[in-house]
Amino acid sequence: MKYLSISILFFLLLSSAKSFGQQYDFVKILPGIGIVYNSDSIFLNKTTITELHQILKIKENSNPNVFVITMWDGYDSETLESISGTEYTREINFKSITFEFADETDKDNLKLRCITMKEDNTLKIYTDNGLMLGMTNPEIREFYPLTRKKDFISENGLNYNLYKYGISLQLEKLENNDMMLIEISTHVIFE
Description:
This protein has helices spanning 2-19, 49-56, 140-143, and strands at 25-30, 34-37, 40-43, 68-75, 82-94, 97-103, 111-118, 123-127, 152-153, 159-162, 167-173, 179-187. By secondary structure, the chain is α+β, with helices and mostly antiparallel strands.
């Protein structure tokens, strides 16, 4: 009888520990490289759409023949020449993460170009140097010193596009002039 009551008590403790266990997944951002989702690596320009579905254990629920054709034009920042182009794009959303695949010519082999993450209570999202989504008043310049003239910070200090590092950050203004980090994107490094 004593053995049975100890077994039941142990089972109750074990089952209650499971219900209070890890409630979120870990996402480590490697700027300009990709992310680590729990223990699986997702690389920019390498991970395919099929591999992404396998890593995230999600079903392909959209038609693979459906994609967006984007036409763009603008000016080269160095030569000031007019430039334009067309590319195929496709987005895959998982929790609060958006994976953007694109290619200029091959719609069947889109490359992972950008990963954008927003705060989510099921994910613990942080960079390789400790910057974390949801941080209040992060000192971004301590984490990522500005080194290039193409790196951009908005006048209000809420948007950072740090092309040399392959990372973009968006903050939200709170009460008392505090700012909270609400979005991090990693993309291919632009030199």
